[in-house]
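May I ask for a protein sequence together with how it folds?
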Amino acid sequence: MSQTSNQTCLTGAAPKTPSPVNLKRFAGWVVVALFMTLSPAPAQEPDDLYLRVYNLIQQADALNTSGQAGPALAKYRAAQTALQSLKRDSPHWNPALVSFRFNYLAEKVAALSATVSTPAVGGPAPATQPAPPETKAATTAATPQLKLLEAGAEPRKVLRLHPKPGDKQTLGITLKMAMDIQAGEAQRQAMQMPAMKMTMDVTVRSVSADGDITYEMVIGDASVSDEPGVLPQLAEALKSAFAGLKGLSGTGTTSDRGFSKGTELKVPPGANPQLQQVMEQMKESIATAAAPLPEEAVGPGARWEVRMPLKSQGMTIEQTVTYQLVSIEGERLTAKSTIAQRASNQKIENPAMPGLKLDLTKMVGNGTSDVTLDLAQLLPPARTVGFHSEASLAMDVGGQKNTMTVKQDVNARLEAK
């Protein structure tokens, strides 16, 4: 979307039919919203990411010293993955230190790989015994902060994910969105989106002795429904954006409590900026699709709160999700949650408007979610989300302050195939 077209929109002379170029960029924004709705990604600063790398190396060194080669190798590899994310996202952050750590990790991984022929595989944590607590890296400001509010009724049990290597899941994701945009004194524009669908295949590759789950994922099909009343150009732009997702693959690691420990996606050669933005958002969103689990034993009626910073559509947002455990039947859990988001005043650059800075004056969002978890599977077999958000933005055009209000309603569903 060009700066001129955005200025026109903000000053109230918006064209009745957006241009195809504008719609393609808007489509990228919509796809980002898909992954943000299912599970927003924590926003990590370079210092936080390096602290995570350092903590992983310290844990790996301790395991290696005590003769636990398999778990040590898993930690060193997790540190490599996190360090790669740091280098990619912040290429100018302390390059000498990053290079030193890369060399150190390469030496450790090479040495241990020669002695560990197969990944260390551990079974599920005993239902009556608490698993090891999360590492210090999971308590930094850039990662989710989980607080148990109520333990729930007896009998209580410790909840841990414990899929087995080779386990596979195929999940379907469906998204419905509607947007309402008011720019300056211009007539309010309501946009109804067609239903967007995709499938994702996830395969567990290994489970470490301390419960870390390494997996591979592949986007199978990605499509946009043909629906009456939808602007044809918008439908075509969305179809084009979704076509770029088909076949994308990646790897990741998640703890047995549902905390992401790093995700990598393979970027196609020559991928456009919108697809790259979507892929960056996908990385952690897929990895954190499940509800984070408390460290303590819990029973029906248990409540816990998860706070985290998010990156969504160029904004840094503070989110609080409060979960309530509804039932436990064997390995299967059902829970419901309430979602609250708020963003303070900030300058943003939306992925739909590269190069254009806007002033976010207010953003609030609220929603609810129902999720079914199977502790023997990595990702939830079912989840629904309903969310409403409102954002007020402003931009200086020719010395005049122009305003825009964007309201968005999202309904998303994830279900096992």
